[in-house]
Amino acid sequence: MGKVVELKHPLVKHHLASLRNKHTPPHAFRDLVRRLTLLLTYEATAKLPLQPVEVETPIMKTECQELGARVGLVPILRAGLGMSEAVQDLIPQAEVWHLGFYRDEATLQPVEYYQKFSEHPPELALVLDPMLATGGSACEGIEMVKRWGVQHVSMLCVIAAPEGIEKVREAHPDVDIFACAIDDHLNENAYIVPGLGDAGDRIFNTLKR
Ligand SMILES: O=P(O)(O)OC[C@H]1O[C@H](OP(=O)(O)OP(=O)(O)O)[C@H](O)[C@@H]1O
Ligand SMILES: O=c1cc[nH]c(=O)[nH]1
Ligand SMILES: [Mg+2]
């Protein structure tokens, strides 16, 4: 069974407080998503496989270690884009493969509108989406990543609802889920409570006025 990890680090809690604040403007919101993603990535990549590599320092040759698997990042558009550059900062060689979904407001079902996968799937994929609400988008995204041929999938989100976690665990029991916070519940519009509102709109400054 995959694990569910909620980050407990004080810096995560500190940045989440500003992220949730409705007065935080988009440029600050983006910075906060970025900082939280760095902390999330540190945790989610703790078990990445390594392979030996010989390196010549100015003093002598020495045995070091480097990542031993191809890592793919799969941001779920749009909001997942707010996370992918931060992960790339820590794993510069990671491949980035995009998946476009929006959640239909009436049915709450994910609607796919973009997919960019190659013929050669990476061994390991990190699916990125700041919000795991009903879990519909995550389940569909993970399903597509697995069908593509990826063996190991982890889901990274900033805020997860218990309902979404349960849905992902039922459909994909092998997948590890990492979240900066697991919130209380979903409201009648399937928004996370207390949450932060619509992550995509806050990242891209497209809130309805
Ligand atoms: O768990 P679910 O109930 O499927 O909801 C979560 C999805 O909803 C949001 O995307 P949205 O549809 O708002 O698209 P956007 O990223 O373009 O704003 C969010 O970024 C997730 O992809
Ligand atoms: O709370 C939520 C739920 C879905 N999508 C969001 O961006 N926020
Ligand atoms: Mg949105």
UniProtKB/TrEMBL annotation:
Q: Which residues does uracil bind?
A: 192, 197-199
Q: Which UniProt keywords apply?
A: Allosteric enzyme, Glycosyltransferase, GTP-binding, Magnesium, Nucleotide-binding, Transferase
InterPro entries cross-referenced by the UniProt entry = PRTase-like (IPR029057), PRTase_dom (IPR000836), Upp_B (IPR034332), UPRT (IPR005765), UPRTase/APRTase (IPR050054)
Q: Does the keyword Cell inner membrane apply?
A: no
Recount the known activity regulation.
Allosterically activated by GTP.
* The protein's required cofactors: Mg(2+)
Detail which positions bind 5-phospho-alpha-D-ribose 1-diphosphate: 78, 103, 129-137, 198
Q: What Enzyme Commission number(s) does the record list for this chain?
A: 2.4.2.9
Q: Which CDD domains match?
A: PRTases_typeI
Q: How is the cofactor bound?
A: Binds 1 Mg(2+) ion per subunit. The magnesium is bound as Mg-PRPP.
Q: Write out the GO MF terms.
A: GTP binding; magnesium ion binding; uracil phosphoribosyltransferase activity
Domain Phosphoribosyltransferase as annotated: residue spans:
7-206
Give TM regions: none
Listed pathway(s) = Pyrimidine metabolism; UMP biosynthesis via salvage pathway; UMP from uracil: step 1/1
Q: Which reaction does it catalyse?
A: UMP + diphosphate = 5-phospho-alpha-D-ribose 1-diphosphate + uracil
Q: Which GO terms describe its cellular component?
A: cytoplasm
Q: Which PANTHER family match?
A: ADENINE PHOSPHORIBOSYLTRANSFERASE, URACIL PHOSPHORIBOSYLTRANSFERASE, CHLOROPLASTIC
Briefly state the protein's biological role: Catalyzes the conversion of uracil and 5-phospho-alpha-D-ribose 1-diphosphate (PRPP) to UMP and diphosphate.
This protein's name: Uracil phosphoribosyltransferase
What broad taxonomic lineage does this protein's source fall under? Bacteria, Pseudomonadati, Kiritimatiellota, Kiritimatiellia, Kiritimatiellales
The gene coding this protein? upp
